[in-house]
Every structure is written in structure tokens, then in C-alpha cells.
Fold these 2 entries.
Entry 1:
Amino acid sequence: MATNHLLEIEQYGQSIWMDNLSRDIIQSGELENLVKNQGISGITSNPAIFEKAITGNAIYDADIEVGIREGLATYKIYEFLVFADIRNACDILRPVYEATNGLDGYVSIEVPPTIAHDTQATIAEARRYFQEIGRENVMIKIPGTQAGLPAVEQAIAEGINVNVTLLFAVQSYINAAWAYIRGLEKRVSEGRDISKIASVASFFLSRIDSNIDSKIDAKLQRGVDDINHEARLRAIKGKIAIANAKIAYQEYKKITSTDAWQALVAKGAKVQRLLWASTSTKDPSYNDVMYVNELIGKDTVNTLPPATIKACADHCDVANRLETGVDEAYNLIESLKEADINIDINTVMDELLVEGIDKFVQPFQSLMNSLEGKIKLLSPV
């Protein structure tokens, strides 16, 4: 029988979550099989995933018709559909949640991406989602924007599990980690339990390489002075995202060694793990599991789309590499500043955050439009 390499990763302290959720995989038993037998210990979702799940899929029609009969607005019908899927997925993952004492077994759902820059609206929706879904093992996704981080802090203080999403820059991760810590400290100051609160910080990968690779390709297309210059540029392609993640993990280690964090550990706090997101390679010339192989390490999560799960089960090369090549990672990031490369990493990260929000807003709006069309089609004349 073929080895499932996903099952080997757990021994290194990393959990594998799946970046996909639909009613099909819940009802067919596929999700239960992935959880029980394939090493999947959590699920993440986002508007793009739900757009694919709901649009053109008749499996949701009966519930859409219920929403129509109850006179629900389009957005409320969307919630009716999605909250049901989230609850059912939470129930399937509940044994994992219990077996790991709340470390794993979570299902993530994002607050509407249209409110990414509105702190108070984000807090209100995170609170409402958590209450209405009504599962201990649901995790609310809040973007790590300037407006999102105060919402993260408040949600944690209120006992809501949070997946801080759309983190690209190392500093953004550091800010997210301290928002989590401040939220826990606030809760402790109010005399409330913090032992059941969980959080992950979703640090994005492949989009970084796609952005930087395109900048390098543009430089190469314009022409370079000599063969050494060309070689230096080519050597950077496909390397920055992993280097950036390894540096973020070093910051994670610094943060978890602080007195502030250790004081919370004494009160029962769970560590906020770094979660590697955007892990499917976009360039077909790259190894299809490179964002898995290179970032296996303790106290982390890797969230994989179904194709990457299949690929990793088949041919991941499992070893503890998260803390190998760290000096090279720092040097690689630093080399971007050199005159013959001249790529501003901060500008790249800012671009990616703006694009990242847009990549959630567009499918969300598309989903609302598609759902509106389906409601008209299914409504009685």
C-alpha cells in the first residue's frame, strides 16, 4: 500500500488543514474520510471557495428555496447556506478538536471581505458569526489589515477563536501576534479563562513569489548588462516566499520567549501558530509541493488545497526544514535591496495586501450576483 506522506508530517509538530469546503464533500463522506484516514485536522474557507461551491451546484437549491419562502434577502440566504456547511464541518472535526485538547479540529470562516477596513463592523460580524454558528471549534477569519488588528484583539478578548488572514510582511505577522497577546491580556485582566481560545496567523506564500518573479521577468525582458547579473536575478525566482516564512518563524520564536507570552502560558494560553497559506505553486516549473517540503516544523499549520493534498500524500519529502537555511533566508531578503536587483520588499507586500482583499471581494460580489440569479430562477412566478 502506498505511503501517505501527509501522515508523516504530524510527527514534526505541524498540522495539515485543507483549504476547501463544500456541501458535496460533507454529504459524500469525503471530508470525514480525509479527517479520519488522511491526516487532515482542520478546514479553511473563503469567499472564493464558497463561490465555486455554491455557483452552478444544485445541491444548495433546496435550501435556497427555503430561504426564498422565508423571505430572506440574498445575503441572508448566503449565510443560511454557508453557516450550515460550517456547522456540519465543525461537527465532523469535533473529535479532532477534543483529541487535541483544542489545538486542531477548527473550521475557518471569513467575515465579509467588504468590511476589511472597518474595525467596528468587523468586530460586530465576528461576534455575530461566532454566536450564530454556535460551535466551539469555529474560527473567524479577520484580515490582518490596520483596521483588522484591533478587531482581532477585541475578538480574542471576547473569547472568539481567530484566524488572522492575509499576512504577507513579517512585520504584519509580528503585529498580528501582539494583537493576540493583547487580547488575551485583556481577558486575563477581567478574570476570564483563556485556556479555550485558539488563533492562527495565516502567512501567505505563493503570491509573494508570483509578484517578485514577475518583476524579475520584466527586468530580464528589458535586458541585463552581463551573464552574472542575469544569473543573480534568476537565482531569486521562487525563493523569496519560503525565505520570508522562515524569517517569520524566527520572529515567532522570539515572541513566544518573551515574559509577556510566558505569563499568559502560565494562565493556560494556547500558542498562536503560524499557518502557511497560499501553498499551491503558481509556476508549473516549480516543485508542486515546495511550500510544504520546505516549511515543515514545530507549532505550525499548513493549509493545502485538494490538489496539493493529493500531491503531498503521493510525493512530499518530509523532513524538519523550517529552521534550515535561516541565514541564507535573511541574506536573500537583504539582497533584494542591492542595486542590480532593486526590488522593494515593502512595496511588494503592500501591493499583495491590496490585491489580497480584492481577490476576496470580487468572488464575494460575484457569488452574491450568482445567488441573486439563482433566487430569481427558483422563485415561484
Note: The longest strand covers residues 14-19.
Entry 2:
Amino acid sequence: MLSDVNTKAKLKKADYKEAMAALDVRLGILQRDMKEGGIPAIIAFEGWQAAGKGAVLNRILQPLDPRGFKVSNLHHSTDLEMMYPRMRRFWSQMPRDGKIGIFNHSWYRLVLDGAIGVNRAPVPGNFLERVRTLEKQLTDSGTVVLKFFLHISRNEQERRFAELRSDSTYSWKVGKDERRQQKRYKAYAESVDHVIAESHTDAAPWIIVPSTDARYATVQIGEAIAAAFEAAVGSKPDRDTSQRVPNVPAVSSKEFESVDLSAAVEKTEYDRQLSRLQKRLRRLQHECYRKRVPVVIAYEGPDAAGKGGNIRRLTRELDPRGYDVYGVAAPEGEEKYQHYLWRFWRNVPKAGHFAIFDRSWYGRVLVERVEGFATVEAWSRSYEEINAFERELIDDGAVVCKFWIHISDEEQLARFEERKRTAHKQWKITDEDWRNREKWDAYYAATSEMIARTSTKSAPWTVVPGNDKRFARLMALRTVNSRIAAALKNN
């Protein structure tokens, strides 16, 4: 692959000037078209040390409005970044709709640097599978993804290193990592070939750019970017208006549809068990902190199901420095212009901490599906995306607990009426709650399919009978305790 590339390819100065004059105009117009169309783009640059990424980037960016792009220099993970799931640091840098994110190094650096032993932590064996999943999620949602590898020969790299070392201003650029890559050039090249073979797709292609001649490399990269932007701008209407129904039959959850809503517990027994379970969870929280095990707890359920009360009992004995509770509503501000998983990646817990979500990423296949905020094609593929998201968390050591607190139609109506009558509870009932009741059957069907498609062995749904609030609180606490204790035992 790399060995097939002619690294000595060159471009005459006159031809370069002519090509860049046309590219400057073309790229400037396309950036505005991408912004107007709300199309985000990610351009990742990998390559040999001293291959000239900085010089090429500088020239490519000159015709662009700097307010419309951001360059992220992704070096080795910091101590804090290593406390989170691996992909979080990359999700936090994702460009919003209409913006261009330029990554000087990317998620691929973890694999490539690992090949020559300069990573701070081992790279999991399934990492490239995770990368393919990430890029598919991005391109499926309309993001343009381009990946460039700037290629120079070993002799050319050695010549450039010597030149840098001879100048006191730039000698710092040739450090320990650079020398190791030079020493292990062959091993690094083999890793590059492997990465490209495993992660090149039509939607997120790799482009190997001969970079001995900076003029040739710059034009090649500029042409590739322009072509990709033109294709994206041209296909935007089809992507936005697609309502194709996937050829996948609807499914339902027996666990959800057969839940016994008559389950209840007496108050005396409830009080006795509640205190014991809360103290047990407090001990487990400290064990999680000691062993650096993160915990993610997601609550879903109909309006007035008792999610808030359940969360209050769950957290009552916990150290507040070790958990965060996120109330999830409709996307606001920046969230509206990002991939729907972006805001959840930002709030995943660091090692040893708890993150509790009052509503979650499942809004994509519930409210966004039922209310028509997402296309059929978009919410249908989200089952797979959500499963992948949770698998990422679990693969990086998290315990994931998911609760659907279920109540009957009649019980919800009774709770709505009580809120309406009780002065200090009236704020809890809104016109939207009443409107949602009119779509009970649609939400019921969506919930049943959601549970059937996203209840996995490592991240199962727990359907909680919620007509009796006391029973629901105890069941959730017992489940969390059990799941955490099992994870700690195996840790």
C-alpha cells in the first residue's frame, strides 16, 4: 500500500500557482455552501513525523473563513482524558453543523503509536472496529469524513530530521517519539497499511498523499477536499428529506408487555429494605471509586412514572462528590447542531464516578420517533448506534444500568389529576404532558420495540413495575447494587 506510492511525485511551480488560484476560489465558495447546508466535515491528518502536515494545512486553510473551522491538535492523552472512555476526547472535538473540524492526528494515532510503543496505555484489540463504528455513525448522519496520510520515504524523513536538528529554533521538534518512529520506520509502515486496509470505506476514505514535494501534496489534498464537499452539497436534499422505511420488521418485548403492574410492598417493609439498600450502595460507590469503575444509570418511563423520586432515593446516601444527575430535555443551543449522541458522550462519567440520566439517548427512538423529530431512516439506525455507544462504555470498564419504570394508563391519569389538584405539584403538569397522553399507544409500541432491540447481555433493560412507587424504588436499588457488585467481583 505505502510501498506502491511514488513519494517523489512533484509539481512545477507554475502549475502549482495555477491550480491553487482555482482551488482558493473553489474552496471558499464550498465552505459557504457547506455552512448554508448545515453540513459538518471532519478532515483527519496522519503521516510521518516531518512529512509537512503543518505547512500543507496552513496553505489549504488560507482561503477559508477562520470562523468556520477549528484545528484540533490531538497529542497523547492527558491523565484526565485517560479517566474517561477512549472515544470521549474525540467526540468532544466534533464540529457542529456547517463547520469544519480539522484533526492534526486523530483516533488512529492510538493504533499507529501503539505499533512503535509510544502509547501511554494498551490499545484494545477491537479498537479499529470501534473506529469503523464511529465513522459510520458520523457519515450516516451526513458528516463528511476525509482521512489523509502524508507519506515520505525513510531517507527523506532522515534528511528532514537532520535539517531540523541543525537549527536551534526547530531542533525541539525531533524528540524521543520522533526518533523512535524513525528507528522503527518499517514497523510503523506496516501498521499504517493495516489501519488503512481495515478502515478505508467509500463514505470515509483514506487518501495517501506523496509529500516529498509540498506543492504536489497541497494540490492533491485541496482537490480531494473540494471534490468531497461538492458531493456533499449536491446530495444534501436527498439526505435531509429521506423517509425510506427500512426493510426490518417491527419487534416487541415480552418482558415489557407482560410486566406485572400489581407488584407492591408494604410501607414498613419498604422502610426497612430502603435503608439497607441505600447503605449497601454507598459502600459500593466507594469500592467503585477505589477500583476506578464508572457507573452509568439511565431512567426512562412515561410522564409521572416516578423517575425523579426513584433517583432521589437512589442517591440519598451517596457521596455527592462522586455522582452527577443529568435531566435530559429537548436539545438546546449547541446540542441542536451536533450528532444526537454528542451531548451524552460529553457527560459520561470518569473512572470511579456515577452518571445518572433522567431520560437519556433513548429519546431518539421514543419522543423523536413518535413526534416525528427524526426521520424514519434516522431513528431506525439509532438502535444499532445506541447499542454501539453502550458497548463502548462497557468495553472501557463501565457498569451500565437501564430502567424503564412502567405504569398503567389509568395510574398515569390518576397522578396527573393529583398534580392538578395539589398546589405545590402543579408545576409538574404541563399541556405537553396531556398531549403526550393522547399518543399513549404510539409510545407504548415504540417502547416495546426499543427494549426488544437494545436489551443486550451486557446492558440489559430492567422493566420496573411502577404503579407502586415504593416497589419501584426498591427494585431499582436492588438491581443497581447487584450489577455493581458483580462487576466489582470480576474487576
Note: The chain has 19 helices and ten strands.
